[in-house]
Task: structure prediction
Amino acid sequence: MSRSRSFVRSPFVALWILPAAIAIACGDKSEGEANDSAGEEMQPESSGGGGSDTDGNSGSGNGESPATTDPATEDSGPSDTSGAADTTGGPVGFIMPPDGGGVAVECDVWAQDCPPGEKCMPWANDGGSAWNATRCSPVDDNPGQVGDDCMVEGSGVSGIDSCDIDMMCYYVDAETNLGQCVSFCQGSEANPVCDPGFVCTIANDGVLTLCRPECDPLLQDCVDIAACLPAAGSQFFTCIIDASGEAGAPGDACEFINACDPGLFCANAEAVPDCAGANGCCAEFCDLTAGDPNSFCSLGAGMECVPWYAEGEAPPGYDHVGACSLPL
Result:
């Protein structure tokens, strides 16, 4: 099976390595650790309330950890229980959540070194809504394959599902616990790869390693439960669980990349009007090739459509992607 799309992992994942994006997208690191996380994700909450995953599962949570990551590159859910975050580092600042525990690794998702009949899975070992550890979980008697419908036990971050080894149940609906089997990245952490058309993202301090589809942030061509957002550690965009809930409108405060409605991203506070005091606020993607690119920017107040990528850095097919921002 052919593979493609590798990326270079950096302390602050995703598009922060691009000058244009650094000025617009705010970033935060994972699990309160210093400078070594690739981004974190969480799953959305169930409409029933309570401690639900930012991954769309009620209960313990189903998302990529609320640790530090750039809101423009990490998935998260509507309810971050980690507390307020500080902003430090860089010309614009990176969101740094409060100090917390590190990653608890029982097994290696790359090596799949669990006993026969089990698989190494990311999960939330603290009852939270973000994957922050790995565990050996039983493989289903009739496991689903990549792209198949699947079910999680308890919540999307329980680490127990009906998918085969080397994959997990992702894009989970909080109400039904049903999702889709998604492959882990193959290769190695130093040289991860996915099938053509998919992007490898390593998030939550390396606990979450997924091959997710490439997408267009202007078309938002993902499944209904996901949004097209920057892929951690990559120049591309990928489909990440939408954890915006009832919030996520233009100008709403945000801390994680997937805390905004589809078509928006979590921008640095300095890029959005009336966002002072927040870690970041939601702003629209915009089409640089449109007759009036600034018409995408609903907040007005001097916001304009600026290129997402630095000049000459846009991958093929992404040169139209812009972001609504105040002049920085």
Summary: Residues 6 and 295 are 35 Å apart (CA to CA). Residues 1-19, 27-40, 46-101 have pLDDT under 50 and may be disordered. Residues 19-24 form the longest helix (6 residues).
